[in-house]
Amino acid sequence: MKRLHPRDSLRENARWALATTWETNCVLTGALIGLQVVQGVLPAGQALATRGLINAAVVQVRARNAGLGPIVPWLLLTFLVTLAEGLCRLLQDFTSRRLEDDLNLELNGALLTHAAGLDVSFFEDPASEDLLYLARQSTARSLLRFVGSNLSLFSNLLQMVSLLAVLVTIEPMVLLLTPVALPYALFQWRLSETRHQLETSRATKRRWTQYFVSALTEASWVQEVKIFDLASLLIGKFRAIMTEFRDQDYGLLIRSVRAAMLFSSFATAALLMLFARVALRVLRGTSTLGDLAIFGVASGRLRSTLENQINAVAIIREEALNVSDLRQLLAAPTSIVAGAGTRALGQVRGEIDFDKVTFTYPGSTDPVLRDLSLTIRAGETLALVGQNGSGKSTLTKLIARFYDPTGGCVRLDGQDLRDLDPDELRSHLSFVFQHFGRYEATVADNIGYGDWRRLLGRNDLIGQIATEAGLDAVIRSLPDGVGSIIGRKFGRFDLSDGQWQRVAVARAFARLASIVILDEPSSNLDPIAERELASHFRMLVKGRTAIIISHRLSTVRIADRIAVIQHGRIVEIGAHDELLKNDGHYAHMYYDTSSLDRRARTVLSR
Q1: What is the pLDDT of residues 558-576, one digit of tens each?
Q2: Which of 98, 153, 164, 298 could cysteine-pair with 47, CB 3.0–4.6 Å?
Q3: Contact indicator for 274, 299 with CB cutoff of 8 Å
Q4: What is the CA radius of gyration of the chain?
Q5: Which domains, ranges and CATH numbers included, belong to the chain?
Q6: What is the C-alpha to C-alpha distance for residues 222 and 224, in angstroms, rounded to an integer?
Q7: DSSP structural state of residue 603
């Protein structure tokens, strides 16, 4: 993945950020630009109005005239300029907050939309987790800071030019002050890059701190943490990382404060010397008292503007790096796409054919599947058994096109999956994943999510599906039936692991899919619930192609055929009774498992 580094693309980042902000809300963006322009010239206007007011007052004093007539226009002008400056600040704050809200909505929506289209492999890569973390930190606030800092750069430049124009007429040597700021600007530029590089290097450790917080505060962890007294250990790990961050930040802060103090001291001393020159000319009568007053005010404002300009440059540098992280995620490509000659699936019978398939996960050199050939007949229930890591789940990921094979091909009803649109293909599939979703929602929604376009709001159909999946007793135990919110984050009721798994099974069968894949569908079920699932299974899969992955051989007996996978290859396939007669891999697994079950029952009976 190519990194969009701002060293090469600062201009592109600025253009993209401004274009994105403008497209989000052109009215607010235009208002923000206008306010920055107005604020850029107001300080000079305020200085000139103050100068005119003082000079007019001095003339009246010397003339011993107590009339306010000559002063009133300057008073009014000073009032209007000061009022305009205050109102502009308020309007800028209002505009920025409103624009940030709009950007939050649009950018987070764009991030989620793009993330939804990324490959499964992207989310299984730890490096992507760091990028996701960094990009989430670079949403609306970072983008708005970047745009705002660019606008502030322009506004501050207007202020500097207008203030210099006023001050040069009083003391031309003030021009020498501007180049003095260049070393400090260069320092802040480099420091901002150092700060971002440090924060980028922390991404993994930042995620570790979030992990420790979750382990200490989430209900699913708390019981085990208390039993094993892990709190002090995890808190110690958390504190070690945060202490490292604190010490690093302290070092950067000391460098920043030292440089700021040095620049501020030098600039203040230089301005004081120039102020003394103007004061001397006032005493000699070559300058007015208004010149002296306005030089003091405007020079102080110029020093402040210079510091703001330097800070804006540093923020632009730092936020450009953050915007680059955001752009990098939004530019992350997907490789699982519809082929050039994409064909519609039409009516799906559900025959799946693996033709000499080899697959190696990205970043690995050891194939998980090796030259595997297998045909799953339409309407057949096939069970996959084998040791952990043998390739069972990987095989089903290829069916869903979460990955494409690195060798050979997978066909559905004779069509290579790479020639099919992934979204259309998946609309004909349904899954019970080994790590199934436990949605914080009602029971009805948890089931209806399986085919939400058809089922949400149709509690009559959902109730029928729940009955077919054997969930009647679970639903009756809840106060609001299928309308009860389950999950501890937002609801008052939770389900056991086995009950959650039965909800996941019901969700999978809620979709009218031609192919159903169940990965360890009974892993959390007790023997009685497992038998109930088996009794409902034939009805649930009627007319569908079904694939079952399970280590519990009592579950796979309901399959028409059983395929044994070892080291990425099919080593045996056939019906349960047939495989037992062959006395091969499956028979040994079955009898070994049965022996373990008998021994376990004997131990438990004691």
Answers
A1: 889 999 999 899 999 999 9
A2: 298
A3: yes
A4: 35
A5: 6-330 (1.20.1560.10), 352-605 (3.40.50.300)
A6: 6
A7: H
